[in-house]
Amino acid sequence: MTESVYRVTELIGVSTESWEAAARNAIETAAITLRDLRIAEAHRFDITIENGTVRNYRVRLNVSFKYEADVTGSHAEQAEEWEHTRHELE
After folding, report:
1. Total count of domains within the chain
2. Is residue 15 a part of any domain in this protein?
3. Pair 7, 35: CB distance under 8 Å
4. pLDDT per residue over 33-48, tens digit each?
């Protein structure tokens, strides 16, 4: 069996439709820059309310992805850039 290392990072997805759509948005956006996504665990759900009406569904996901042993250059920079973007979204 090959040994592997995974990272778990938190994403926040937002949708005007549903929590499922919010999760889908988070995963599909993350998949643009993160490869080999493995598992997402939804652990917090909330909504934003304006004037008594639900405006947005938000879900926090812990997402795991596999580290590659030979990641260099642009892939490593993209992963780091995504981490900075994630913190800006919070």
Report:
1. 1
2. yes
3. no
4. 888 888 999 999 999 9
